[in-house]
Batch of 2 targets.
Target 1
Amino acid sequence: MNWDAIQAVAELSAAVGVLLSLIYVGLQVRQNTAALQAGTVARSSELMQRTRLKLWGDADGVRIWDQALSGVEVGDPERVLRIRHFMVSLARDHEAVFYQHLARQLPEPIWEGWVGEMRLVWCSPGGADALAAIRVDLLSAPFVEFLDAQVKSSPEPPLLQLRSRWEEAARMRREIHE
């Protein structure tokens, strides 16, 4: 065997080694991406769970939720402050999820669920009022533009759709029991 043949075998072996290394790195990146996506979904769910627990942990919290979405800020100053604080916390949570989506860290079906929740909140009378009050100072311009597009594209506020479904279900239950 001459040196040219040995060199050709070495180059071929090196090329195969590089190719196998690239395939291995590609597989590792894919596994890392999947793990990152799963972690992001878990963190965003934990984030919203904490917010909901603070709010729905007691009956007073449920009343604040209802008042926040209906736009009614009545009661003592502490209650009004809790409503405003809740809306700011919710906006921050939604903004974090928005940026996770932009970074392609959330699967599309999960993101669509979040968009539905955002429409429910920010298309409600209280959500629209809160958004108008906090948008400039506390939220990023891309997120505000996204929310504006959601509000404009929603034909009927989702909260009203949901309430009309609840009212229809309640009416049907009454008819059944009569």
Target 2
Amino acid sequence: MRYLMTALAFLIGMFLPLQVAINNALKTDIADSTLLAALVSFGVGTLTLLLFSVATGQPLQVLSSLPHLTWWKLAGGTFGALFVFSSIYLAPRIGFAAMASLIVTGQIVASLLMDRAGFLGVPVRDLTMVKLSGAVLLIAGMLLVNFGDRLFPRP
């Protein structure tokens, strides 16, 4: 089961540049508006999740408790919107590979710290030399993707 989840996570990662490319193509059809493209993308995503929720019999009535939640439990949606908006904005300006390398590196660094701290109640995981070495290699890869042509110019 672990291999299946690992493969699924890798596949989801491969969807990121595809999602960004689709959203950028959408942007060109709606007045070249990054904000409107993000809004449409989120709207379609919301509708998709609603349909899946209904199809799988999720108890939608529990959503009535949303007004009683602490504010930060709803912040994930804001971060998601910022992510979609920023990726639509950044990809054509800095390139897909540069953007993805920065996003993935940021995710790994933050995730290692959150795992180590047990952030928001997730199980605490050790920060080992192997994990730190992986993060350092990822940072090196990000630097090469973003600045390698300047560091190692062609003769």
